[in-house]
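Quick one: structure tokens for this chain, please?
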Amino acid sequence: MTLSVKGRYLFEDGKPFFWLGDTAWLLFEKLTPAETELYLSDRAGKGFNVVQATVLHTSQRLESGQTACAEYFDKIASAVEYARKLGIYMALLPCWGSFVKNKIIDRGNVETYARFLGRRFNKYDNIIWILGGDIRGDVDPALYDVFAKTLKSYNPERLISFHPFGRTCSCRWFNGCGWLDFNMFQSGHRRYGQTFANVSDNGKNGEPDYEEDNYKYVEEALNLNPVKPVLDGEPSYEGIVQGLHDFSQPYWTARDVRRYAYWSVLSGACGFTYGNNAVMQFHSFGDPDANYGVREEWRTALSAEGARQMKYLKQLMLSVDFTQGSPRPGLIIDNGVRYDHSVCFAGEDFVLIYNCNGGEIRLRAPFNSPFNAFEFNPGNGCRRPLGFNKAADGYIFPAWDGHDRVIILHKS
């Protein structure tokens, strides 16, 4: 299992690899080995091939004594090995960003910690390193430079990215760094117009704030040189309250998750990471550290609607030669805005168009020859033939029933 980068996409042993990630930040700190295997088996069965988990999420592991720490890292190693058997890559985040903000990890000890991780996990070929952890890259870029280069010194083949603060992208600080193999952005958990005076990710230093338009982060990253793969590493989680902290607000649903997924992938992202509020924190009723209005236990949330539906995106992209495709927004006559926005991705013999409201699509001629049209339901993976009308400026695909859909075109 060896991942590599070629242009905008990831490859496994030379074959296209579509990243379908799940968020499991507190996996190692909260689950037993048996529970970890249950979780990983479930995710493998649902088509996930990457799991994002934090090695050190809270400082309690540093305070638990040498023996306990050794046992803890042995547990992580066992989980990585089990994941490998299931065909899952473990995207390990060495420490949450708060460790850097609070100077627990600093320039004086970061190399020591990175060397420990490099030695401890050098033999596992299903590891991806994700630095950061809900932190801006300009907090201490020199520290992360040392962190990454030290990890790379143990195994240059292990890919490295950076998980940034909400509504920012790693490309803004590290795209030119040789150690950054692919970019990651966090589109975050707030809806359009939902801002807070004490939140510092609202267009800081003149940076754009795309709100829910997560496809714009993909466009931003892919317009840079060098071009590197990019994906949404933290969109709105299924079952989390909009804005995170006011529990009177609505909760994000599976349909919202699908919108983030299809918007970003059909804009050129190399994959997508799903998240569920109960699963990412492995919540059990009675936990004293329950966060963000969590309403379910993690075992129940494993079968949440959105988690069951992510595999259909992966199946769709693998059904075409997606690494030879590219975003083609110009094919759509009116792309629309906000929830009416449509995205288009096309290759030599296929076109994929997504709209989260199922509205009418007007399309310029995609091919110079006849084609077949289908309607794909992201909620159940089913496709059906789709009729369309010829117009003076192209083709008209009639509205659906208000649900999200993908229009698939293939040359006849």
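Residues 331 and 364 are 5 Å apart (CA to CA).
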